[in-house]
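Q: Given only this backbone (445 positions), what sequence would you predict?
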């Protein structure tokens, strides 16, 4: 889980502050010292921590005392605001030319950072915004890279331009832009070669491509799990070729978070997106304020809502609403809603964005949330006849016995599911808007 240990430590510091009632200046000082230690342990660069603590301290002892907040709340508020500022305050979008022109984006990074995967993820995002992207396979040194891009491009329904590995990357980039022009495509994303280390030859090649095709946006892909190395790599790339923004991959596996917190402050370029998993849909826009909220255990309800909106099919949701209105909500619909929940990252994915659920609390919960139970419910539902699924009220003991035997579970499991289903049905009736009436009172179930 991203930022797990930092999140835990900071939440502990604040919990201690809150439990103290009246705070002395010494209490606040001691808490800030712990915040400093937590950031250093999270692998945030020393220079950044020093600057961060200076800003926090100045505000905590200076004029920034707000009435209505006790000192503990004030410290949390200041740390939160400074974390947001550290990560760049505003969300930065990739600057694209108007849709009638071609925007050329060059993806750069070290081997293994996740560049090829991220290139395809980004193309998918731009496609969903109405752009027509072309992926160009300019990594001629790792033959598997071309194939990997082709496979990922196909999954995203996006064309991949390749000239094999016998042409120079500069020629391929030029030809790709021409190809996009002739087909009215408006974004060309160049997947360039990664190396194991930053070397002169690599940098020269990137500079040549950049000049040859007038690259609009150079985006560096770095692996969050490499911590300070990611920070050094960002500084180096920015110095040598000039970058416009960073995509931080593998944040899903980064329990420390040092790179995410240091990159903006050290190289001065914004984090545009973060990679949160291996699937092509696992790329999230980077919001400094939401990230700070997650770190401090204040939840990220906005991302949760957006995820729901992106996952839920509007037509299906309307259909479901109609069924509830007409008392036609059956087990097939229940199964459908369970699957949608799975698409949103399962229960644990949803819970991790809820307030108070950051850090290792999630880890404890993950053990308790039985994702397997969801699979078992699915098996039970699939053992029912279509008639039973559509009219759950006909489920009598003998039918339940048959269903239990059909999927190899105890009858108590079937009873539990039926009860759960009935509760869900009742709950849905009460959700405002679900039944069409204000407060859900007018609709008839
Ligand atoms: P490249 O050498 O930079 O092109 O790296 P690849 O795109 O081949 O990715 C290297 C590995 O990292 C692959 O196994 C990817 O699935 C994995 N990967 C990429 N992005 C993410 C991410 O955000 N999270 C996780 N968990 N894995 C990722």
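A: Predicted residues:
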């Amino acid at each position: 889980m991203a930022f797990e240990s930092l999140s835990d430590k900071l939440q502990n510091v604040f919990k201690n502050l809150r439990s103290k009632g009246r705070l002395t200046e010494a209490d606040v000082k001691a808490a800030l010292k712990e915040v400093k230690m937590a950031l250093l342990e999270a692998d945030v660069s020393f220079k950044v921590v020093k600057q961060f603590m200076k800003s926090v301290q100045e505000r905590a002892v200076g004029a920034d005392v707000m009435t209505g907040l006790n000192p503990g709340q004030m410290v949390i508020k200041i740390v939160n605001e400074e974390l947001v500022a550290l990560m760049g305050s505003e969300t930065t979008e990739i600057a694209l030319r108007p849709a009638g022109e071609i925007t050329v984006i060059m993806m750069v990074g070290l081997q293994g950072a996740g560049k090829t995967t991220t290139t395809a993820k980004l193309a998918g995002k731009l496609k969903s915004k109405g752009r027509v992207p072309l992926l160009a396979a300019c990594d001629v040194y790792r033959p598997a890279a071309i194939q990997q891009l082709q496979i990922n491009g196909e999954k995203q329904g996006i064309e991949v331009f390749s000239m094999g590995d016998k042409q120079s990357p500069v020629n391929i980039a030029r030809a790709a832009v021409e190809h996009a022009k002739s087909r009215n495509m408006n974004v060309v994303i160049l997947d360039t070669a990664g190396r194991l280390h930053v070397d002169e030859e690599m940098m020269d090649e990137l500079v040549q491509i950049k000049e040859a095709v007038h690259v609009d946006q150079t985006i560096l892909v770095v692996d969050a799990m490499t911590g300070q190395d990611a920070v050094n790599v960002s500084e180096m790339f920015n110095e040598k070729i000039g970058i416009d923004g960073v995509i931080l991959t593998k944040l899903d596996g980064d329990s420390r978070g040092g790179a995410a917190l240091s990159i903006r402050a050290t190289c001065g370029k914004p984090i545009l997106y973060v990679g949160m998993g291996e699937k092509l849909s696992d790329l999230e826009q980077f919001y400094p304020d939401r990230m700070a909220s997650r770190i401090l255990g204040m939840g990220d309800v906005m991302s949760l809502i957006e995820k729901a909106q992106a996952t839920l099919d509007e037509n299906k949701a309307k259909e479901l609403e109609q069924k509830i209105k007409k008392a036609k909500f059956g087990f097939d619909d229940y199964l459908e809603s369970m699957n949608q929940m799975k698409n949103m990252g399962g229960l644990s994915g949803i819970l991790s964005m809820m307030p108070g659920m950051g850090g290792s609390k999630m880890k404890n919960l993950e053990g308790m949330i039985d994702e397997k139970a969801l699979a078992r419910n699915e098996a039970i539902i699939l053992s029912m006849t279509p008639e039973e699924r559509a009219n759950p009220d006909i489920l009598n003991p003998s039918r339940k016995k048959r269903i239990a035997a059909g999927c190899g579970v105890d009858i108590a499991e079937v009873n539990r599911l039926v009860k759960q289903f009935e509760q869900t049905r009742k709950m849905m009736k009460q959700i405002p808007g679900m039944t069409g009436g204000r407060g859900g009172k007018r609709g008839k179930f």
